[in-house]
Structure prediction request, 231 residues.
Amino acid sequence: EPEVTQTPSHQVTQMGQEVILRCVPISNHLYFYWYRQILGQKVEFLVSFYNNEISEKSEIFDDQFSVERPDGSNFTLKIRSTKLEDSAMYFCASSPGGMTYEQYFGPGTRLTVT
Amino acid sequence: AQKITQTQPGMFVQEKEAVTLDCTYDTSDPSYGLFWYKQPSSGEMIFLIYQGSYDQQNATEGRYSLNFQKARKSANLVISASQLGDSAMYFCAILNAGGTSYGKLTFGQGTILTVHP
Prediction:
């Protein structure tokens, strides 16, 4: 069964460093998302992406964040200058679109900023 | 704006019994969808079930069913015949299916379910 994959599973970085989190969505899906979950809290929407552009972004998704779909398979989230409060689990999700609204999540990348 | 409320921080159930996890929602959009996800201790988010706002029948997926009461704005998850492997955090989420917010999920705080043998 096709699934969303994410790499790495765990990333440790120092404050101020840039990180790139990678995702491979399900191949025939059209909509892509990033969510994050700070430890012990609920899952929060960051950004949605369709047709090679951002559809919507939350107030969390400030100028330090960017997303890219550099080729036909990868979908990346970049944090330019990480802060301690960026420590969280980051989930990528994809959806086929049309009348199918289900979003399928990847296993997540745990980002730890020290 | 959409809002999801899960009022049960934790629930306990005996193995093989049924359990209901509560979820109420608030939205001004006429078209929306309701989701339940399971998050085991390993951290991944597993899609369980989906209910569209215009669906006439309650959604079912195996042992999972969604008790959708539109007038009450509730979308409770019913798990029948609980198994030890059902122990996890469960999140209810709402999706706005119109306008510029297509596909954005808003999650509740979650309910931790513990299944006792």
